[in-house]
Write a structure and sequence with these properties.
- The chain is of the alpha/beta class and 383 residues long.
- It has helices spanning 14-26, 37-47, 63-72, 90-99, 111-128, 150-165, 181-185, 192-197, 206-210, 238-248, 267-272, 285-299, 325-332, 344-353, 365-382, and strands at 6-10, 30-34, 51-54, 81-85, 103-106, 137-143, 169-173, 214-215, 221-223, 254-261, 276-281, 308-314, 336-340.
- The protein has two domains: 6-128, Rossmann fold, CATH 3.40.50; 137-382, 3-Layer(aba) Sandwich (Rossmann fold).
- The protein has 15 helices and 13 strands.
- The protein has an eight-stranded mixed beta sheet with strand order 8-9-7-10-6-11-12-13, with helices on both faces.
Amino acid sequence: MKMAEKILIVDDDVQTLRLVGLMLERQGYKILAASNGAQAIGMARTEQPDLILLDVMMPDVDGFSVARTLRKEPETANIPILMFTARAQVEDKIAGYEAGADDYLTKPIHPAELTAHLRAILSRSKSREGVPLERGYTVGVMAAKGGLGVSTLALNLAINYFQNTRQEVIAAEMRPGQGSWSTELGLPNFEGLNNLLRLHPNDINTTTIENELVRVPYGVRLLLASPYTRDASLIKNTANFEAIVDHLSLMARLTLLDIGLNTHLACDEILNLCKEVIVVTEPFPGTINRTRLLLEDLKQHGFGGNKLITLVLVNRIRADVQLSVTQVQEALGAPVAQVIPPAPEVSFQAATRNLPMIQVQIGGMLSLQFSRLAEAVAERVAA
C-alpha cells in the first residue's frame, strides 16, 4: 500500500494550520504542524517530510531564516519548500527564492491552486528520487570581445526558455569579479560562484552547488559571480570550474554558461563539457575578424563538427553604416541563427527597474527574437 506523503505546515496562525491541514488531509496527505520557526527546523530534521509549506512572518525565526537553515544542513537540504505568505512584494519573492524556496505563493489563494502547486513540486521531487541523474544540455555563451551583450543574452535566453518550456534551467556566471546579474536584478547575494571556487574541487557536488543557487521570480536558478574585481583572481581555480560545470549538467534540463571571452583561464575545461556554444558578435568589420578567429579556435573543441556553434548577431546601436547579415555570414563562413535588434530604450528601462530586458516589453520585438532563439535551443534539448 502506498504511504501518504508527509507535508509539514509551518505557520504561527492556528486557524491557518487547522484549515490548510484539513484541506490537505482530505487530499490524502499526512499532515505535520509547527507553529514557529524553531519547531519547524526540529521537525524537518526528525520527521523528514516530503514537502514543507512555510509561512514567512513568524515572531521568533522567520520563514527566510528557516529555509536558509534547512538548505545548509545535508539531512534537510533537499526537502522541497513552498513559501505560503501574505508578503506579496517582488522583493519578498526574491528573498524567498534566495533563501532556498522551490516555489512562492501569496495569500489568499484558491485551495485548488495551492494543491496544484504542491502536487507539481512533489512530482518533480519524486521523479529525481532513486533515479540515476541524467545529464542535461549545457550551452556556453561567449564572444570574441567584451561589451557585446554575452551576459544579457545568457540571462534573457534562460528566462525565455523557462517561460516557453517550464523545464528546469540554470544560468551561471563563470567570471569572478565581473558578475553583472546581481546588480542588474537587484539581488544582494552574489557570493555563490566565489564560495564554490574557494572549495577543494572534490568537495563540489550537486548539494554544495544547490546551496549557492538563487531562484528568481522568473523561474530560473542563477549561479551569481561577484562584481568586485578583488575576486577576479579566483578565475585561476580551473579544476573548480570543471567540477562546477560537470555537476551543473546533472541539475537541470538546460544549463547556460556566461563564459565571456575565450581568454578565460578555464575556457578549455568549460568548453569540453558544453554540447553547444553560442557566439555573440556584431556587424562591424573589426569584430567580425576577431569572431572569425574565435570560430577557428572553437573547432579545436569539436564545435562546428560534432558539436554545434550558434551565431547570434547583436545590433546594439541603430547605424546605417554596418555589415548586412549576408556579408557577416560570408565573412564568417557560418549562418547567423538569430539577429537581436537594437533596443536602447528597453535596456534603459530594464536597468532602472532591475528587470530582465524581455520583461520590460513582453511580446515586443526584442522578446520575440529571444523567444525564437529559445525555441530553437529547446528543439535541440529535446532531440
